[in-house]
Specification:
- With 351 residues, this protein is an alpha+beta fold.
- It has one domain.
- Helices cover 25% and strands 24% of the residues.
- It is built from 10 helices and 14 strands.
- Strands 8, 11, 12, 13 and 14 form a 5-stranded antiparallel beta sheet that branches. The protein has a 4-stranded antiparallel beta sheet with strand order 5-6-1-7. Strands 2-4-3 form a 3-stranded antiparallel beta sheet, with no helix packed on it.
- Strand 3 and strand 4 form a beta hairpin.
- Helix 1 runs antiparallel to helix 3.
């Protein structure tokens, strides 16, 4: 049996850290981070046709002439093992903190390992909604959560030391839980999440009949909130936007909900079944300054994650989520595949 990386199965956390990084690669993959000027099209550079792999408003630009060849694979394998050892040590030292960690990979690096039957749905994140959902794909995601911000930091420091110079950190964000699990918008967040462990396992983790059993697909997006704009809307308009009552968190019926409400855009059904995901999101930011939501979701299939994005950002029917218009804009977006613990310990082995 392949054991899932345990973070997705734990609902008991108040703090989280997300780090996205690029893996140091060979000369035929050149990455420029924090690029502030964006190019929509590149036709030709000298005599070679080079197509930029990026979306509008993206802060990572990668020019790929051929499939990237990563020069740090062995160091990444070693970093994963050392990270798992650090996790085990801190879990034993601070069992009350319910410390959990996921290590996951973007499509370029994962596909370079040639585990062709595992993570087959994985792809680089495209820009949805004509750029409303920006694409900032990276090679590596480290997601840590627990009941203690101090323990999270302690583990992340050890993990970054384990990977050393084999990675370049591109983004780091810290999340925290508010009272009643409310977001900075004042609404309870994650109400549609499954809570039964069996349901979480079924929805969030690939089942044991598959070659990549124990793995998970992950969507990570950073949503920046415009709270002053949000507060300019009436309570009724805010509730219309979400599809729930704000104070007592009562879901509006399907007949009552606006077609553009967040609940209508994300509570999807297909072939008599629901396209469920497991959310592990938290608010981020400052009391005065940038703030918002680090949206993090796990699923046994990338399909469910992508369907929600297509519906939220207008690719499905031309209708966008009210929250995109009234509250938030995306600052990042990426897909990752988290292999099982067994695979993470044996990344270099075929099979």
């Amino acid at each position: 049996m392949n054991t899932s990386q345990s973070l997705v199965l734990s609902e008991n956390f108040n703090f989280a850290i997300w780090i996205e990084a690029d893996i140091v690669s060979a000369e035929n993959k050149v990455c420029f981070n924090e690029v502030k000027t964006f190019i929509d099209e590149v036709d030709k550079v000298d005599d070679e046709v080079i197509k930029p792999q990026f979306g509008r408003s993206q802060n990572k630009v990668c020019f790929n002439e051929v499939k990237p060849q990563f020069g740090q694979s062995q160091n990444i394998f070693s970093g994963c093992l050392k990270s798992l050892q650090a996790l085990d040590l801190l879990q034993k030292q601070f069992p009350q903190d319910v410390l959990r960690m996921t290590i996951a990979f973007g499509a370029d690096f994962w596909q370079s390992l040639n585990h062709t039957q595992e993570g087959r749905e994985l792809k680089n994140f495209p820009a949805y909604g004509n750029g409303l959902a920006v694409a900032t794909q990276h090679d590596l995601l480290i997601h840590i959560q627990s009941l203690s911000a101090m323990t999270n930091i302690a583990l992340m420091q050890k993990v970054l030391a384990a990977f050393g110079d084999s990675i370049t950190v591109c983004s780091e964000e810290h999340g925290y839980r508010l009272h009643e699990a409310r977001g900075l918008d004042g609404f309870v967040d994650g109400t549609e999440n499954p809570h039964d462990l069996a349901d979480i396992q079924r929805i969030g983790v690939i089942d044991n009949t598959q070659p990549d059993a124990g793995g998970s697909y992950i969507l990570l997006q950073k949503y920046q909130h415009n709270l002053s704009q949000w507060q300019s809307y009436s309570l009724a308009q805010q509730e219309e936007s979400v599809g729930r009552s704000k104070i007592d968190n009562i879901e509006f019926s399907r007949e009552e909900r606006h077609i553009r409400s967040h609940l209508s855009r994300t509570n999807l059904k297909e072939n008599s079944g629901s396209l469920k995901i497991v959310r592990r999101s938290l608010p981020y930011g400052k009391a005065e300054g940038e703030c918002g939501l680090m949206f993090c979701a796990y699923c046994h299939t990338l399909y469910n994650l992508e369907k929600q994005l297509q519906t939220m950002f207008g690719d499905a029917d031309g209708q966008t989520d009210f929250l995109i218009e009234r509250l938030s804009k995306t600052l990042s977006g990426a897909y990752y595949f988290a292999p099982s613990v067994e695979r993470l310990r044996n990344l270099s082995q075929a099979g």
